[in-house]
Amino acid sequence: MDDEVGEAYARRAVEYTELFGSMDAVHPLDRQLVATWAGSLHGAILDAGCGPGHWTNFLTELGYSAHGMDLVPAFIERARTAYPGISFRVGNLNAIYLESRTVAGVLAWYSLIHHKPDALRVPLLELSRILSPGGELVIGFFVGHVVEKFDHGVVEAWRWPVSDLCAELVAAGFDVVETHVRTTAGKRPHGAIIARLSNRGGGTHRL
């Protein structure tokens, strides 16, 4: 699945960057949510699935220590060119290169939507592994009434009910802090979840 997703985005990297690769394409409420969340952290932030790097740059311009990771080399190349002072690296959410407990926050903005439901636990456990105690994760995703596949336009993706995705997070060792849903005429419903690494001891191992 990783190869399929990576190849699909690589073929459309230029088009994707032109359409979505700037903060001008981001809803103001999403910018506010992420900026407020980042302000509560104390340490480095990983933009996991950073695409062409605009969110990583957004966080850096706000004064936070952020670096980006993406599966698609073409995105990383474009990010490094556009934002030369920021660290970007090719990486896989299913096996993140970082040491355990080394980041305070992870932004996973629409970067988990291509994982099949029975495969989502793998990246969630990886994200819980790299977060420091009390660290937090923000997920952006498409909301649906049931867990279901849909035609994303680039490659198949999945939408989730908020409650179902929250349950996956809890099973991976997180406590849900906030949930947000936004509906806009003519667009797919959007969801965001902020979750904090639990002190219950779950989610610290790889599958």
List the quaternary state of the chains: single chain
Structural class: alpha/beta
Shape: globular
Alpha-carbon distance between the two ends? 17 Å
Helix proportion range: 25-40%
Q: What value does the average pLDDT take?
A: 89
CATH topology: Rossmann fold
> What is the total domain count?
1
- Poorly predicted regions are 201-207
Number of beta strands:
9
CATH architecture heading: 3-Layer(aba) Sandwich
Task: Give the count of helical stretches.
Answer: 7
Report the order of strands and helices: HHHEHEHEEHEEEHEE
How is the largest sheet built, in terms of strand order? 3-2-1-4-5-9-8
Q: What is the CATH top level name?
A: Alpha Beta
What is the C-alpha radius of gyration, as a whole number of Å? 16 Å
CATH homologous superfamily caption: Vaccinia Virus protein VP39
Task: Summarize the biggest pleated sheet.
Answer: 7 strands, mixed
Strand content: 25-35%
Description:
This protein is α/β, with parallel strands linked by helices and 207 residues long. Helices cover 32% and strands 26% of the residues. The chain has 7 helices and 9 strands. The protein has a 7-stranded mixed beta sheet, with helices on both faces. It has a two-stranded antiparallel sheet with strand order 6-7. The two termini are 17 Å apart. The C terminus is likely disordered.
Would you spell out the secondary-structure blueprint of this structure?
Layout lengths: L1 H10 L1 H8 L7 H11 L6 E4 L5 H8 L4 E5 L2 H10 L5 E3 L12 E7 L11 H10 E12 L5 E3 L6 E3 L2 H10 L2 E9 L7 E8 L10
Parallel strand pairs: 1-2, 1-4, 2-3, 4-5
Antiparallel strand pairs: 5-9, 6-7, 8-9
